[in-house]
Amino acid sequence: MINYIWFFMILAGVITAASKGEIHLVTEGVLKGSEQAVLVAAGLIGVVSFWSGVMQIAQDAGLMRALARLMGPLARRLYPEVPPDHPAMGSLLVAMSANLLGLGNACTPLGLKAMGQLQELNRDKETASDAMCTFMAVTSSSLTVIPTTIIALRLTHGSLNPTDIIGPIAAATCCSTVITIVLDSLLRRLTHRRRLP
Amino acid sequence: MTLAIHALSRWAIPLMLLGITAWGLSNKVPIYERFVEGAKDGWQTAVRLLPYLVGMLVAIQVFQHTGALQHLIRLLAPLTGKIGFPPEVLPLVLVRPISGSGSLALLAQVFESYGPDSLVGRLAAVIMGSTETSLYVLTVYAGSVGLRRTRHTLATALLTDLAAALVSLYVVLRFFA
Questions:
Q1: Is A72 inside a domain boundary?
Q2: N- to C-terminal Cα distance for chain A?
């Protein structure tokens, strides 16, 4: 599926640029995209290093195991293949909490830490495990309860009550997270029988 | 309530940093040495990530910079009107999964043209808040551990984004109409 979406974006771009007689836009897009990728990756080096270091301390101090035990039945239901007292379970909890609190640039590093530990448990290193699929789906469905950026933006645009969307956003976020968990468990069965590329 | 929430999100990281180091020290962990050991992963993660990011961001830029995205929005606009979904918010729904900064700019544009307290403005805000930059999350998360196949996850994420837009419409109508 990713192959088709990738090709669709390139094809649509080339056709649009050609029909406008401005084919150079494609080349410009390529340069912009590659530059942006380096900036994003470089921007992550520092924060990912920092949070990996902090989480290493947490793990050595037994904090992750304690957290994992705290997560209890809900986490075991969501990630049945992760051993309940494995540090990965603690990392998953930390990453999901950071998302819930809207901790901005801490979310990605903590999520990547959890992915790294799930990869240690993964048998086929090139294919996502069930736990990874669930974690990626839940993260990409948005867990944020406090939409600080949106509230700030509404305020600057003269909203009379900028925080009145907190309730609706919380309701919509909960719904979409439930939907993603259901979709993930339904679609998972399809890709188990017949592993799609 | 909101004040407490804001305080919590401002204090969370400093308290976490202090709490973890203090807990480590009281458990006789050589915290600085272990921190440095763990931090070594950062460089590797970023390097492993780069090819995935280049591939995805180049395609997204080609798609956006050439104006192909605008074309797609114009093609789809009449369809959304039929199901009662405001076409003014459609650009946001389509850009949201592929670009965080792009969708934020579109949200600001909706606020600018229709006002943050209008139905359209509120719908845009709720969609923005209940979705993520899915394609970016998948690229970065899968790339960081070198996965080649993410199985059904892309389908799950994109279907969820679609569902979230419809749920947002329902929620906004229930709350504000």
A1: yes
A2: 7
